[in-house]
Write a sequence for this structure.
């Protein structure tokens, strides 16, 4: 039996967006409480794992919240330069979530 | 105490036109206010620095005309914040002029128009620094220095509810605001009618992005918020959308680092103990919000500083050997620019699409480039002439890069256009700070006039 699933197959929404001029925030939102609790239990998304996936120093992670009212895991990083500075490839921060689509989640627990 | 209803047709008025179908359904529900925010710092530092709009004037006129005609026909106030994307003085004046023009074109009966400004003079901020009141950085920024202030072209202060309430108390039927906290636009309406702070600010928080608090996803549709002293209810007006517990709770975390706390000028909305109930098919009720006033009144400042004039060039690569050595190709072109211009006083930025143009250093797959790449080159310098030459050097020298084992010796890149294009000047966000003020209105002078 398959014990792992991709986060994209479990989450309703996986998105990123500016949170002000200096941060990008990521929202992983689930349709049902059960799936949300399953992903929390799997530890696929933790402060350590999201920093590793994005290759950022843990000091750049400003928030990591499990937000029960919306069945959501939410985390926020400081940008390496403010949004819209020359050379910034994503002024809105809206296309930074893609690496999380393929995160493998252990669903055996 | 009866309830109060506000409709919001657009989370960023003018950025894309509001959808008229759901807006007219919202108007038919007889709201007590029609309100929308027109600003965002999402659009980057260029519009604030350049004092320009991010969207065509026609789209802004479209939304203002829909809202003004509806508000005047219902006889209810219309409130707009952050005029013209940035809320600078010129954008407020532009919206005031648009309102006058629409009123004249439709021969509207006389009404009272109020507006306020929110630009802050650099010397005003300097006096605060020299007077011992530090300008504190947000989001890990250090305190503002006078050097950074000097590098700043334009500053706007983020208004809270106070100038809106002053203009409502003066009997204004239409209000055009300078840069404003988006939740304050709606909160001011509720506070002016005596509703409590927690419910009023929550109402603003949930309405500010219009249909982003509804599902399925669909922007620019109207939503209606209804407030009582005990709760806030939010209802989707589009036949295709609903406000569900999930969509409303989910919206609390949109575009913000923390879903529990919303900071506004004068206090903090605490959503930690919010409770959400689906009370009708398209309506969710929210209770349990709290508001904590602050003792020191600090106003958020946004500032943009010019880096230089800017041109843009583009080049493509298909040779797999060149793709594997693209950083050496870029280094070659950069060296040619250094030989011509020295190492300082200009900038070249390369975005390599097909490798990590979108995510930069965050890209986990940056060592797995695609079979073709597009390089976007941005050159920045003090004058247009120099920026054009820097960009042309940084783009065309990609063509002449010397790689030891390349087979194609007739040209190293492809061009869609053998030219570079003038872009907006480059700016950067210099201020994301807060400043203490003695009076919540001191940065926001208000004006009124009877139109028609």
């Amino acid at each position: 039996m398959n014990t792992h699933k991709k986060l994209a197959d479990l989450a309703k929404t996986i998105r990123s967006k500016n949170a002000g001029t200096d941060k990008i925030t990521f929202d992983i939102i689930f349709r049902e409480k059960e799936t949300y609790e399953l992903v929390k239990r799997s530890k696929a998304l933790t402060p350590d794992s999201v920093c590793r996936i994005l290759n950022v120093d843990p000091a750049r992670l400003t928030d990591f919240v499990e937000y029960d009212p919306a069945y959501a895991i939410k985390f926020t990083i400081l940008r390496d330069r403010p949004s819209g500075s020359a050379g910034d490839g994503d002024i809105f921060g809206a296309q930074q979530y893609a690496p999380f689509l393929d995160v493998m989640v252990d669903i055996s627990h | 105490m009866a309830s109060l209803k506000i409709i919001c047709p657009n989370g960023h008025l003018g950025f894309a036109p509001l959808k008229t179908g759901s807006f007219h359904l919202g108007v038919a529900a007889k709201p007590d206010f029609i309100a929308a925010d027109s600003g965002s710092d999402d659009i980057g530092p260029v519009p604030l620095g350049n004092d320009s709009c991010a969207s065509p004037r026609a789209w802004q006129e479209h939304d203002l005309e829909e809202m003004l005609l509806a508000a005047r026909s219902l006889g209810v106030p219309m409130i707009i914040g952050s005029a013209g994307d940035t809320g600078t003085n010129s954008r407020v004046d532009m919206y005031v002029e648009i309102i006058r023009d629409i009123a004249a074109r439709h021969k509207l009966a006389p009404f009272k128009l109020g507006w306020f400004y929110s630009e802050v003079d650099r010397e005003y901020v300097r006096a605060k620094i020299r007077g011992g009141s530090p300008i504190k950085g947000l989001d890990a920024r250090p305190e503002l220095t006078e050097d950074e202030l000097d590098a700043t072209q334009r500053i706007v202060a983020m208004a809270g509810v106070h100038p809106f309430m002053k203009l409502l108390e003066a009997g204004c039927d239409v209000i055009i605001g300078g840069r404003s906290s988006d939740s304050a636009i709606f909160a001011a309406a509720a506070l002016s009618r005596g509703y409590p702070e927690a419910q009023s600010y929550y109402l603003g928080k949930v309405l500010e992005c219009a249909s982003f608090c509804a599902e399925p996803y669909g922007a620019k549709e109207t939503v209606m918020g209804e407030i009582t002293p005990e709760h806030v209810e939010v209802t989707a007006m589009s036949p295709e959308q609903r406000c569900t517990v999930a969509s409303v709770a989910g919206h609390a975390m949109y575009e913000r680092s923390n879903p529990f706390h919303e900071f506004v000028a004068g206090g903090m909305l605490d959503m930690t103990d919010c409770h959400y109930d689906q009370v009708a098919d398209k309506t969710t009720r929210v209770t349990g919000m709290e508001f904590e006033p602050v003792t020191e009144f600090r106003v958020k400042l946004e500032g943009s500083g010019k880096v230089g004039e800017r041109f843009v060039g583009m080049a493509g690569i298909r040779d797999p050997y060149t793709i594997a050595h693209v950083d050496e190709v870029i280094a070659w072109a950069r060296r040619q620019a250094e030989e011509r211009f020295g190492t300082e006083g200009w900038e070249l930025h390369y975005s390599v699409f097909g490798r990590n143009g979108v995510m930069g250093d965050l890209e986990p797959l940056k060592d797995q480039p695609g079979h073709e790449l597009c390089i976007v080159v941005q050159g920045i310098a003090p004058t247009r002439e120099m920026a054009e030459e820097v960009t042309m050097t940084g783009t065309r020298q990609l063509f002449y890069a010397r790689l030891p084992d390349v087979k194609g010796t007739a040209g190293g890149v492809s061009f869609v256009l053998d030219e570079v294009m003038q872009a907006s000047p480059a700016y950067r966000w210099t201020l994301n700070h807060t400043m203490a003020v003695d009076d919540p209105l001191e940065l926001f002078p208000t004006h009124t006039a009877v139109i028609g």
Chain B has 13 helices and 20 strands.
